[in-house]
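INPUT
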Amino acid sequence: MSANITIKDVAKRAGVSEATVSRALNDSPQVKRATRQKIQAIAHSLGYRPNGLARSIRVQQSHTLGMIIPDILNGFFTQLSRAIEDAASQAGYDVLIVNTDEHLQKEAKGINLMLEKQVDGLIITSAGASTDYPKMLGNTPAVFVDRMPPADVVSQYDRVLVDNVQGTQDIIGCLIDRGARRVGIINSAVSATAQERLKGYHRALRAAGLPTDPATEATARVDGSNVPQMARQLLVNQKCDALFAADNTIMTGVLSKLPELSLSDFQLGAFDDNDWFDFLPQPIVTAKQPIAELGRIAVERLLARINDGQLPTQEFRLAAQIIPRPTATHP
Amino acid sequence: MSANITIKDVAKRAGVSEATVSRALNDSPQVKRATRQKIQAIAHSLGYRPNGLARSIRVQQSHTLGMIIPDILNGFFTQLSRAIEDAASQAGYDVLIVNTDEHLQKEAKGINLMLEKQVDGLIITSAGASTDYPKMLGNTPAVFVDRMPPADVVSQYDRVLVDNVQGTQDIIGCLIDRGARRVGIINSAVSATAQERLKGYHRALRAAGLPTDPATEATARVDGSNVPQMARQLLVNQKCDALFAADNTIMTGVLSKLPELSLSDFQLGAFDDNDWFDFLPQPIVTAKQPIAELGRIAVERLLARINDGQLPTQEFRLAAQIIPRPTATHP
DNA sequence: CTGAAAGCGCTAACAG
DNA sequence: CTGTTAGCGCTTTCAG
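OUTPUT
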């Protein structure tokens, strides 16, 4: 951000006022064709580049969206961020991304940062239910994706999520159809989502007339560090014949433990799909989230709210697609 | 970016001038302790949030770095972006990310965007050798990571890369040590990098006294669409007993084709490592890039250049670490 | 220690 | 169709 050439330089060089240059550069129809072209030519030859900050500050909007995600290394969020970027850029908006590492403090810092950068709106995947979002956000529009805002303020925000209950129920149902009689679950630590997935798990068991057993239900730490040990606990000690991992990270933890357990004849299910699951010897039944859709709707909704702050808030629930995996290629 | 409360509001409320508020908020030592605390309290109670754009425009720097990457879905770049974000934020800089999808046009648009947003510097993983960076960038500092800038302007920019020759040579050498006699390569389309990796491949063959054969050398399309077919060509038609994939994307293409070829007794090597490679039945020898280092150095260097535009440019070559994979766990 | 005033680069009335 | 003027929110001389 060094001594750059400004609108003033162009104006001087073109022998017109700054206002005219501004108009010409913005293709205002109310400037003579000839002048406009001349000005644009001069601007180009001078290597003029508009200062977006100055513009934003003047017009009172940045045309920029902020996005708060907990872990960019997690494939789900990488894809989500990609989807959101695509949708936003199609609407002429840029997006700023901040990683929270699931830390509330980093999240707070990130949100602050974005507000200072004057984003027009925020897309948030919350790192925790304890944050006072209304106070943090002020009147900056926000939509929550993938994770619910804290219960006491849900109704104040739009949210777009996947149907966790149904998705989980489908997976477990599929495992049972294929012969599972004792299904273990390693759930995530994210409260609302975890509850829904647990509910789906229970429903599937009940629907099949199988008993629930607290001994087959475990909850992973947010960093996943205790997952391998839990996998062992459930598959070996508890003799589960199928194991459900409630998300991406958890499934990875499970997979890392499997070789040393050297079991056979058990099934695997997981929420969130990964392309490379196709390459594994052990098939995994997954629920694939409609990530592009999630992103598209979130952006759409956020932009709508930016244009009309009074819009009533809404919840969007999208169905997850079950990928049974052992099919054609996996006999 | 709606009607927010400004420094003026705080000043009025505190009965002081805007200047004093500004000083107080920036912890200037030249404002009386009492006034400062009072002002800060008022600012807080009013929910005042500084307008970063206004500040940036005034002080002529944004404390923001821009990052241009070709594909955020590629694990290598996700990790790289993460590393860069970490390093930058530690230095008090934010980072803006733009995805190019390997499209020169998107890259140009992205760079433009960042410049308009007045980033203080740019970290670029170039999408093509044909771009006229000096013209695009003007005097905004930039460092190139992972991919060389165009040959005619290399010397104008800092670059931080991995030692592709050595890394590849190590992988191929390892495959040969384990018995490979006819090693195929599917190279990437990225020119400079590809040449280096091909060189390493040739060197390893020569060192082992093996012949090179153009029939065992293929080049993937940038989108990887023809990789599966190439894998078939090399492994089946050309009867290679080992296959080297020059990057992440290519390896994925190869893996997707393997099941239907149902071969046995062949080896796999790849540049770029992925955690999930550990879970595959077929071990893969990889060269793992020191991504955190790459990011750290890039940021360090960029910041140094921001502070001193006259700094002589430099090239950093980091060693890739070979992961032989069939070890302890893979007998 | 604090205030008044100028100005970063840009756009939006308001005149002409 | 174009110029003049004012001002977005902030920091920074320069005075006091």
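end of record. The longest strand of chain B covers residues 64-69.
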